[in-house]
Amino acid sequence: MTATDRLTTASHIRATLSLGLPLIGSHLAQMLLHVTDTVMLGWYGVTELASVVLGASGFFIVFILGSGFAIGVMGMVAGALGRGDEAQVRRDTRMGLWLSILYGALVLPVMWWSGSILLALGQTPEVAALAQDYLRIAGFGMIPALLVMVLKSYLAANERTQVVLWVTLAAVVLNGVLNWALIFGNWGAPEMGVRGAAVASLVCQTLTAVALAIYAGWIPGLRHFHLFQRFWRPDWPAFRQVFALGWPIGLTGLAEGGLFQASALMMGWIGTEALAAHGIALEITALSFMVHLGLSNAATVRVGRAMGARDEVRLRDAALVAVALSLGFALLTVVVFLTATEFLVGLFLDLSKPESAGIVVFAARLLTVAALFQVFDATQAMALGLLRGVQDTAVPMWLASFSYWVVGIPTSYVLAFPLGMGGIGLWLGLVVGLALASVLLMTRFWRGRG
Known about the structure:
With 450 residues, this protein is mainly α.
């Protein structure tokens, strides 16, 4: 390797981290909103914790399906910027916002009647009722949450990621303050329990959407895109393009999120304590996944811009660097999960309560299993980001769905129940599904570059 090659590699690393680190920070901060709910409700009560594990998981499943349009906008805007087509940047982003508003309104009845759905899926009446209480309030946050995703994609493609980080961090602080007041009834506020957590989330999502919209629409460096000028006017060709690229992304996310949601439902069949432990272990693994998601987003933007500029060499180099960075962090995460399991789990519970001891032990065992799929989870997330950058979403949807649902879920069920491995078996099935997805998706991307 020559000095020039090394400089080129170093420049790719700097560019990826410059774009990816604020995205990682914003994803971690966004995840901390849910972690704050989990931690505080873990202090409040085990039944309340279990209900919000289900409620927040249900919200996330519906959210991730609708977020496909926002994620599609990232690759489309990056490609348009690579071509120098500013009009297309505006068109794609606007119709991403339109689709997000429409979707958020259509799914609100699902949130409102979620209790009946959870009962039909075998959850206990008490947990189902509390989860419905949570979702009937949190469901109104679907539209602002999706608008935040579109605006984050637009800003990321424009390499304006710092503001996303700072706005999201401010929302985390506000969410913690509101949770402390509304969950427990502190500072003279009413004690609302799970409803208080939902109100706090709704307020934070709405204010975040407003702040990012103001920045995206009126900052001098982006004002020339005229993002919100005549926003009410439809652009049906762009609407169809965003829809066509976005719905496979949403279904891919639904397939992956559904893998974990199905495992939560099956864990609920084992017991409330097992479900609470599952929720804690899942929160911890999701936090590490936010790093891979941020790097994957950076890869989407970088390969999207390279594709728009028709620079195949830059595209391939950017992809290689992003994959290497993600795998390096995955290996570090494996070490942490294997050496600090009980410490990490203990952060989520009031250890003075007698029921916490069993949850800590079981969640620590699950986290040990989670160490097995860190590399696979990182690889499949990065492959999806790279494929979205080159606007390849339909075939990856089928590959991911096959891995998660035809292989992963049946394996989880068989290991957990017929073979009697319980919750550990459920998580081993996740390892199998994610491993297959990582191989199929990464092969898809690199064969397309050959």
